[in-house]
Amino acid sequence: MKKLIATALMTTALTAPAFAQDTISEFRIGLLGGENAQDRLASNECFRAYAEEALGVPTRLFTAADYNGVIQGLIGGTLDMAWLGASAYAAVYVEDPDAVEPVLVKTNLDGSFTYHSIGFARADSGITSLDDMEGQVFGFGDPNSTSGYLIPLVEIPAAGYPMEPGEFFSDVVFTGGHEQTIVAVANGDIAGGVTWADGLGDWEDGYNSGALRRASDAGLVDMNDLVEIWKSKPIPEGPIVLRSALPEDVKQTMFELTANLHANDEACAYGVAAGETAGFTPIGHEAYETIIAVRRSQMN
């Protein structure tokens, strides 16, 4: 792989803890829930193969049924790397601040690293805004999702739409993940829900990247059958994290591999990033302090 990121930059982003391992015998990458396991594995297989070649040890992908499976794997040390949402990173940090290090973030085609929680409904439902959701069933994805729960849980009530079932929405339910929410709305099982997208490009494509783009690419939904009814303020894209106790050379290898993925294999980067991306750029803990504060506030 081409070396496009300077070693000095890598060592700035990665700090070896006192309890770091000397060697590894395998490398384990966790994939967040929200999409069926087969599709998640297929989208990330190219990256797994690159990692195995670069590290020289067996490298495995692990698909959890929900976000918490990956969160607990990172905290417990049974996973070495994952792309987390901002709220999932906050969950790890709140439980164990020393478990992982945020090192890289996916960037959009315009160079930004934010995305949105997107509220949506069926186009033939007559629902065009949250006002029209009164008395209807609203769907969240996963309780550890930023866009599928945490941000809409804060922003939608602040806009005047209480989330307590029966107060405005007839019911508020968890679907199990982003893909499940999209399918549930498309099938008419729930009237509306939230998922994530970068908010760039065309609605008909599912925007440039995100769960809608992935579902559209997979043929699960025709975006013309759906309509956007709400959009959150910009949310910081979640970080790619590495287990803090990994050997420093392993962390630097994976940092460089991921940072250069788009330049070396754009098609692979498309699958890993759930759509169009300008690549992955360094990021640190400070970018997520606001999300951590929001997460803590919801715990009280």
From TrEMBL:
Signal peptide per UniProt: 1-20
Keywords attached to this entry: Signal
Keyword Cell inner membrane tagged: no
The protein's name: Phosphate-import protein PhnD
Coiled coil regions in record: none
Gene3D superfamilies, per the entry: Periplasmic binding protein-like II
A Pfam family reported for this protein in Swiss-Prot or TrEMBL: Phosphonate-bd
Keyword Membrane applies: no
Cellular component annotations (GO), alphabetically ordered: ATP-binding cassette (ABC) transporter complex
